[in-house]
Amino acid sequence: MNKNSSNIMTLAPNTSNKRETVCIFGTGDFGRALGQKMIQSGYPVVYGSRSTQISNLIPKDAEVLGHAEAAQKAAIIIIAIQRQHYNFLMPLAEVLHGKVLVDISNNLKLNQYPESNAEYLAQLLPGSRVVKAFNTVSAWALQSGTLDASRQVFVCGDDVEAKQMVMDIVRALGLTPLDKGSLLAAQEIENYPLQLFPMWKFPVFLSLGLTVFFFLYCLALDIIYTYIYEKNNFSFFIAITIPNRVCPVMALILLALVYLPGVFAAIIQLYRGTKYQRFPDWLDKWMLCRKQLGLIALAFASLHAVFTLVSPMRAFVSWRTGKGIISQALNNKTEPLNHTNAWLSDSYLALGILGYFLFVLLGITSLPSVSNNVNWREFRFVQSKLGYLTLILCTAHTLVYGGKWFLSPSAYKWYLPNIYMLSLVVPCAVLVVKFVLIFPCIDKPLTQIRQGWERNPKYSE
Ligand code: NAP
Questions:
Q1: Which of 80-89, 120-129, 229-238 has the lowest mean pLDDT?
Q2: Distance, CA 31 to ligand 1 centroid (Å)?
Q3: 304 lies in a domain?
Q4: Are residues 349 and 378 in the same domain?
Q5: Residue 23 — φ and ψ, nearest 5°?
Q6: Whether residue 161 sits in one domain with residue 135
Q7: How far apart are the C-alpha atoms of 366 and 146, rounded to whole Å?
Q8: Which end of the chain has fewer CB atoms at under 10 Å, N or C?
Q9: 121 within some domain
Q10: What is the pLDDT of residues 4-40, one digit of tens each?
Q11: Do the domain assignments include residue 343?
């Protein structure tokens, strides 16, 4: 019996809720929000402040003392003060010796100082154990409890034990610590909250530039040309007709641009005969933003679908249909069904629907919650194989629709090709090169290179 009970004692978890006191320097927005959260999680909190007067804003149950007195009460001190005031800590060096100092500060600009704030703090107080944490969490999120999107807390520091103590607090607050290594990582962690959609910049600017170009191109050919040479005022095309030409063109080109860097990479690897040389920077950056390019392409494709669905409601379309019926009535002649046209229009719609369905599937599988649940092979199957199938279907959809204009001289207004012809250049080039790359005589060496084989190995035995 005794033996059993001693086993149970050993296996039983430590249910004691007693937590170590935590000291927070600074009773500003962040200090108060973090203090409140810590008190809720069972930590006794003592503030170190320039003023020891208790105000209504300070969390109930927290003590407010002078800095030195407060620091003596805890092993962990959170510095909730801006970097430019860190000098005031120097006279406290003796009290802070051996203590864990948590730097939570952020800057106003990327790489504002030569060293990170946490490294600066460590230089000022070499006897303390500095850990960087909490800077990516906002005071507002801590207070309002809306931490669902940002539960991750980056932690870094040179002292493993100190880092562990801080990570335990992070976990106790219901957040997820992510160890980023030594204090050298602090600069990157401090830059993190200052970045504005870094991966989206290139795709967004590229899409904006191309959209403006194609919009002006259509404006010139569909409205200005028609007005000058045919004396027709189609200025209302600006609202739906031109956007519904630009959107599918953008969707197709951007989708092709998702697969173009992969084709470039394959050619470069084949040429070099190794995968152990870095790609040029521009190609690296392009590869990294393929997901964003694909999502913007999906947005354009969705707009195209909506514009097409509302098309029958347009006054211009009703007028054109009515005109056709009246002309048949006036001529007392019913036009026979053109089977070629019927086939073309049905195939065009079917290809569009299938292409869009796969497009949406690609978008869904790129969401982290979905991609985290599939293995690498499944992910590659969807993004590469189904991705190419989507590109084939969407290219065929455009070819079936615009193909009839290729040989028609009326399509070349001002000697310029129709927008649909322009849109096919990049996707067709990608598909043709990809087709060549899957020939066994090319695919085999490429696969070997990707598995580590080198044509001219640097380090041969
Ligand atoms: P804040 O509201 O301006 O509070 C800063 C506190 O620092 C003041 O309340 C004051 O506390 C103390 N202080 C000011 N001047 C001082 C001086 N000369 N000497 C000593 N102490 C001084 O700023 P905050 O928003 O809480 O931000 C504090 C730190 O947290 C910053 O480094 C910020 O980058 C970081 N942070 C903030 C957020 C946020 O959402 N606010 C998020 C992440 C990180 P006493 O009056 O009690 O002495």
A1: 229-238
A2: 7
A3: yes
A4: yes
A5: -105, 140
A6: yes
A7: 25
A8: C
A9: yes
A10: 444 434 444 444 567 999 999 999 999 999 999 999 9
A11: yes
For residue 182, report the distance from its CA to the centre of ligand 1, in Å. Answer: 25
Range of the domain at 400: 198-330+337-451
Q: What is the 3-state secondary structure of 122-175?
A: HHHCCCCEEEECCCCCCHHHHHHCCCHHHCEEEEEECCHHHHHHHHHHHHHCCC
CATH number at residue 167: 3.40.50.720
Average pLDDT of the chain to the nearest whole number: 90
Edge-first strand order for the sheet with 45-48 is: 63-65, 45-48, 22-25, 76-79, 100-103, 129-132, 152-157, 176-179
pTM of the model: 0.72
Same domain, 145 and 204: no
Determine if ligand 1 sits within 6 Å of the CB of residue 27.
Answer: yes
Whether residue 85 has its Cβ less than 6 Å from ligand 1: yes
pLDDT at 232: 86
Task: Look at the chain and report how many structural domains it folds into.
Answer: 2
Say whether both 169 and 273 belong to one domain: no
209 and 116 in a common domain: no
Find out whether the beta carbon of 80 lies less than 6 Å from any atom of ligand 1.
yes
Q: What angle do CA 79, 83, 88 make, to 5 degrees?
A: 70
Amino acid at 176: T
For residue 308 and ligand 1, the question of a CB distance below 6 A is answered with no
Question: CB of 105 closer than 6 A to ligand 1?
Answer: yes
Tell me the C-alpha distance between 15 and 4, whole Å.
20
My answer on whether 79 and 176 are in the same domain is yes
Range with the poorest average pLDDT among 21-30, 390-399, 450-459:
450-459
